[in-house]
Amino acid sequence: MKKNKTAFYLLLVYIIMQLSGLLFAPLLLSFFLSQDGMEEQKAKLLASGWWIFLSMSIATLISIAILRKDKPFLKNLKGKKSSIGASIGWGVIGFFLVLFGQSLAAFIEGMLGISQGSENTKMFVTIAKTAPVAILSIAIFAPILEELIFRRVIFGSLVQTTNFFIAGLVSAIVFALIHFDFTHILLYAVSGFIFAFLYYKTKRILTSIISHMLLNGFVVLIQLNAENIERYQKYLETLSNSQ
Fold first, then answer.
1. How far apart are the C-alpha atoms of 32 and 101, rounded to whole Å?
2. Which residues of the chain have a pLDDT value below 50?
3. Cα gap 215→48, rounded to integer Å
4. Are 8 and 63 in contact (CB under 8 A)?
5. Which residues contact 208 (CB under 8 A, 6 or more apart)?
6. Is the distance from CB of 181 to CB of 120 less than 8 angstroms?
7. Of 136, 144, 134, 157, which is closest to residue 46 (Cα–Cα)?
8. In this predicted structure, what is the pLDDT of residue 237?
9. Fewest CB within a 10 Å sphere: which of 58, 150, 196, 219?
10. Over the stretch 214-237, which tens digit does the pLDDT of each residue have?
11. Coil, strand or helix at 39
12. What is the pLDDT of residue 179?
């Protein structure tokens, strides 16, 4: 019964966090617009960035507080847990597995005529450029919250009464849908399924959190430096052509 209450509270915190933008984002926008000389577009990006940071950081702290009162909640998977060292190692390996999985998903999407590049990712990167504080949420808070909800609560509950593949598939699809980037739903679903595998493999949510953090951090780093990377590639091409 206590585990059900903990899962419910975590879901409630996550839902409130998602809906909090309806109230607090406009308040933040009004605050930034009140600043002298602030352009409307910049004010919108700052308001979005700070809302993302504040809502996710607070939700993460509340979720951790909830888990501190129910420590057995994270020990729901049957079987022996991997050691901390092995779990961290699988977290790093998992990062590369997700990159491979996403590359395969992107190839399939390309075969289906779907354009490359996630609008959801581009939006977050644009916000992060104006409000760098949002990077903390994207790379740290979001992975913690999403792993607790989609892997521990959803996958962890389903795998008790079904099997790994059904639980992994359902949690992966829900994970993909919640990102509201339906064009690239396969990309997110593949990532979600691999995260579920990592959690199931080590029996520690720490593993999928590490992989998720590395993935989000890597994507943000690449996107923020896209122009520099492109210039360097052109420079290499110039050197190659001159030889």
1. 40
2. none
3. 22
4. no
5. 91, 94, 147, 151, 195, 196, 198, 199
6. yes
7. 134
8. 62
9. 58
10. 999 999 888 887 666 666 566 556
11. coil
12. 86
